[in-house]
Design brief:
two-stranded antiparallel sheet; alpha+beta; Gyrase A, domain 2; Topoisomerase I, Chain A, domain 4; 184 residues; 5 helices; 58% helix; four-stranded antiparallel sheet; elongated
């Protein structure tokens, strides 16, 4: 019988991966393509991500530049960026769209740090949820006489160590992002 902890490792790693993606979308005062690549654009009769209809570049630390592959999509892109309410208004020159990031105030930075901590707590809750599923599998294996009591205790200890390691990873990511956001 496969070890339920080994089977759950990808689930734990997915929580961390998702958390890292969420952190990339949080504004830190530096331009980042991740801030706009998932904005939804109505183009060609369907809804697509910005990254599906345009190239995104960062010419300098405060500017995001978007160039649609088809110039007919420029207006749709501009409309989607305005609707996304990113705190930046797009300026269009020909088919190139530029988003200039306004300087972050101390208050904005504190608000962003709060969001980082909220997302960190959400990640910890997801980790606890995966832990609970694994715990139930271990208890079920013991009940079904697949494993003994000693093996259950050993697996529970291993599980707690894994959960602790993943929670530390979340804490490290929160701390890194907090420093990034608070650095002027």
């Amino acid at each position: 019988m496969p070890n339920p902890i080994d089977l759950a490792k990808p689930d734990f790693e997915n929580v961390i991966e998702h958390f890292e993606k969420e952190l990339k979308n949080i504004r830190s005062g530096r331009a980042n393509a991740a801030m706009v690549e998932h904005v939804k654009v109505e183009a060609y009769g369907s809804t697509m991500d910005v990254k599906s209809v345009a190239s995104i570049s960062i010419p300098d630390a405060k500017t995001i530049q978007i160039e649609p592959w088809d110039k007919g999509v420029t207006k749709d892109l501009e409309k989607a960026l305005i609707a996304a309410n990113l705190g930046m208004s797009p300026s269009v020159t020909g088919t190139t769209i530029r988003l200039n990031m306004p300087p972050m105030t101390e208050e904005n930075r504190r608000d962003q740090v709060k969001i980082v901590h909220q997302r960190g707590e959400t990640a910890r809750i997801s980790i606890r949820s995966v832990r609970e599923q694994v715990r139930e599998q271990i208890l079920k294996q013991e009940k079904d006489k697949i494993i003994g009591e000693d093996e259950r205790f050993r697996l529970m200890d291993v599980l707690e160590k894994e959960v602790s390691d993943f929670n530390k990873k979340v804490d490290e990511l929160v701390k890194e992002k907090e420093e990034e956001v608070m650095t002027i």
